[in-house]
Amino acid sequence: MHFVSILFISNFWLVSSKQVVISNVIPRLDVDGNFVNAHDGCLVKFDNTYFMYGTVYGECHQSTTICDGVCGYINNTFALYTSPDLVNWTLINNNIVPEVTKDNYYINYWMPNVGYNHRTKQYVMIYWSSRYGFKNSLVALAVASTPFGPFVNVQPLEMQGGKTISDTTNLFVDDDNTAYVRYNTRDEPLRHVVEKLSPDWMTTTGQFSIIFEKEDFPWYDGGGMFKQKGIYYTMLSFDCCFCQWGSDARVFSATEILGNWTYHGQLNYCADGRGPPEHVTDMTINPCSIDDPFGTNFTVPAQQFNVATLQISSEETLHMYYGERFRSSKDGLKAHDFQAWIPIKFIGTCLQPLLFLDNFTLNIDVELAT
């Protein structure tokens, strides 16, 4: 890693282009040498600092190739790490929503997503809570005056596009500061919905669009939403509960976020090059190796939770697949499982299939004090 050029001088600070190497095979450690324990959340940039919000998993062992209902389920909190360069991470807080410790011994908490509302000057977090998920149409909501928190719970969002929220939620903020929540439902038919929030992001407008719906298994989890050259994209995948083999990445696109969504293509094939089947009988089945959960994995053997959209320089916006590689840690501890960060590549408007990268290099802008 090295500085390659100084870009400009302003108000006693410099912006320099720095080359960094991102690894998917070396454990991600913080500046104190501890494992970064922030999973299934989001990676965002506020001002010139990168913020990673994620679920703090316990130092437990997942007992099977899929979730066991214990490890990764209870005693979760939400952590915040920051970095100037996507490589050097500092733990700010491992309990940034303090209220979750009141009941996290039996309520499940996952998937913190944070955005900044320029109108209200508030930082807003949505997250998944078993207090609401699989029970009703509510999505947990918390706010803070700074990105460092602490975040305080407020009245949850009551979504209008489904009666029962399922297992994933995402926050997407458009260029005009309008916020949307993408979620999946347990209503019949099962569907993924994107729904517009009010200008203060505290309620829904009731305006929504159905991205995709189907009657039968496999259900689909959600990855992330992003926008590139005026086109909106969302990534969905086989229902996967902490699965060892990972899941696919089916991309849907729309020219209007509340308009008609169409299937765009598959991005994450099985590691042997085959496309996964359209149907499997249960989420306990490895789609790439029907009779062997320890057989062929997906090319990127991860469960996707988000797409990070980061302005890494004045000339480049990075769209990056953001997923969890369950049962991947060397010591078997869930808290130490690897994440998969994979740049999403375009040729024109065509998305290219994902490739698992041990390492990749980015040129990013960083601030230097003078």
Automatic annotation (TrEMBL):
Is Translocase among the key words of this record? no
Q: Does the keyword Thylakoid apply?
A: no
Q: Which InterPro entries match?
A: Glyco_hydro_43, Glyco_hydro_beta-prop_sf
Arranged from A to Z, the UniProt key words for this protein are: Glycosidase, Hydrolase, Signal
Traced from the root, the source organism's taxonomic lineage reads: Eukaryota, Metazoa, Spiralia, Gnathifera, Rotifera
- Give the protein's recorded name: Uncharacterized protein
SUPFAM superfamilies this protein is in?
A: Arabinanase/levansucrase/invertase (SSF75005)
Residues of the signal peptide? 1-17
What is the organism field in this record?
Rotaria socialis
Domain of life according to the entry: Eukaryota
Share an example GO biological-process annotation for this protein. carbohydrate metabolic process
